[in-house]
Amino acid sequence: MSAMRRLRKLASQAKATRQPRVLVEVAKQQLGIYDWQLAVRSFRVALSLTKEHIGEVALDIGFTLSRHSRYQESVEFLELANAQLAKDDIRAPLLLADVFERLGQLEKVQELVERILKYHPNSIPAHRLAASAARQNGQLDQALQMLASMDKKSVPLHWEAARAWYEKGHIHDKIGEYADAMRAWQTAKQYYPTDGNYALYQKQAQFIIHHPDRVFDSLTNNHLSHWLQGAKSLPHQQRLTILAGHPRSGTTLLEQALDAHPDAISAEETSIFSATVHGPLFEGKPGGMPQSHILDELTKPQLMKYRRVYRTFIELALGEKTNGRMVIDKNPDLLQLLPSVIRVLPEARILMALRDPRDILISIFSQPLPPNHNAICHLSLQSSAQFVAKRLGLWIKLRENLPEAACILKYEDVVRNFQPEVKRALGHIGLDWHEQCGNPAQRAAEKVVQSPTYAAIREPVHSKSVGRWQNYAQWLDPQMSELEDTLEALGYS
């Protein structure tokens, strides 16, 4: 919270002394700590103080906002940049088209792409965006045609080339051409740039894959039961639900349904708990010290500090006070942080989304993850299978000790019996059924969805993705030894 106060003071000083460049840099840091409302105001003031290169400044701001998933807020700045910069400068229209695709405004995507291709007919990002819009509109032949030349092009290693190959794979998948889809996704992996931070990403990926092992090594049943009982002694109880699960397990579908409830509010896909609680908890501690020991040694004043900081930053991210509503903190990554959650926020209700690990594997392998440590974890089906098994293995260890705090929701049950399963989830977190919870697609149309599944969530609830892995069985067969124990433990064998 001291960082928040310091940045607000710096922003005020930059405004008073009319220093737009300084104000922009301060606002960028405010975005990094979820103080986004003040950041946007600072960006607007900075632009009003800017006397030259307005288009470049607006482009920089719009790009920064989109990188921080503030897509709606980025539009005004990118549109200003688009109007200010030269007509053949495609940076602003490309970013705008990307944002509009994210927001589901496909007609605007098509308009911008037409302009871009007029000046740069070989633009790979423009062709990808056109293909994505066509695919979402059901025009699969047209979508495939937009990327037909990818097989013939000599393209440098670049994230945009990888994105185009991922999109090509999804079009083939939609058509039912599964061998071509798998080939496209495997080709996409080859286009991740290997310079810059690649070596660092590889090290981080190994840490992430094996992180559950470090949790397993020291965690016992006594730890969890002791921490859960500790909820009674902590004042200022929060109405909080942790919605976790392996990525691609249906957490976004559940989150949209729960967020529609008038007595709930969702903080979707933030890293607040990791950044403000979990990370600081272990910062500076010896690498060999068991995590459970560090958590067990926390004093009541320390717990109260972390709880207070967490609540402050959740409300910053939400942009409003919770006013007693049930807060839904939805992030699949919270699965591996559950021991820390239980220690610091033991009153939290836990909703655990599960799905057939084979469907998870295909879904996450085909996901266009940006070039970072997460993407490195999924460069091959083998590494993806290892990741899935390790992450779900943590839940298998934890579940027996969380009978009252946790409610398990299987994706297959949710999509086939949506209303009863959502009612069960609501009941677990102390809320009654509300008719608004029955239409997650409508809710997704009313707000910006942060999850990578932003396009799929706009569709009505369906079960077409159940058993999708069978289309790729020949590629998954070599990975089954990695998943066998997990499949059996979760009832999917």
Task: Give your account of this protein's structure.
By secondary structure, the protein is mostly helical. The protein has two domains: 2-179, Serine Threonine Protein Phosphatase 5, Tetratricopeptide repeat (Alpha Horseshoe), CATH 1.25.40.10; 198-489, P-loop containing nucleotide triphosphate hydrolases (Rossmann fold, 3-Layer(aba) Sandwich). Helix content is 60%, strand content 5%. The protein has a five-stranded parallel β-sheet with strand order 2-3-1-4-5, sandwiched between helices. Helix 1 (2-16) packs antiparallel against helix 2, helix 5 packs antiparallel against helix 6 and helix 15 (272-282) packs antiparallel against helix 17 (300-318). The longest helix is centred in the middle third of the chain and has 21 residues, at 198-218. The chain is globular and about 65 Å long.
Radius of gyration based on Cα positions: 23 Å
Q: Please provide the count of β strands.
A: 5
Indicate the CATH class of the largest domain. Answer: Alpha Beta
Query: What low-confidence regions span 5 or more consecutive residues with pLDDT below 50?
Result: none
CATH architecture field of the largest domain: 3-Layer(aba) Sandwich
Largest sheet, order of strands side by side? 2-3-1-4-5
Q: Tell me the count of domains.
A: 2
Number of helical regions: 26
Structural class: mainly alpha
What is the CATH superfamily of the largest domain? Answer: P-loop containing nucleotide triphosphate hydrolases
How would a crystallographer describe the biggest sheet? Answer: 5 strands, parallel
> What is the averaged pLDDT score?
91
GO molecular function: protein-tyrosine sulfotransferase activity
Keywords: TPR repeat, Transferase
Organism: Oceaniferula marina
Protein name: Sulfotransferase
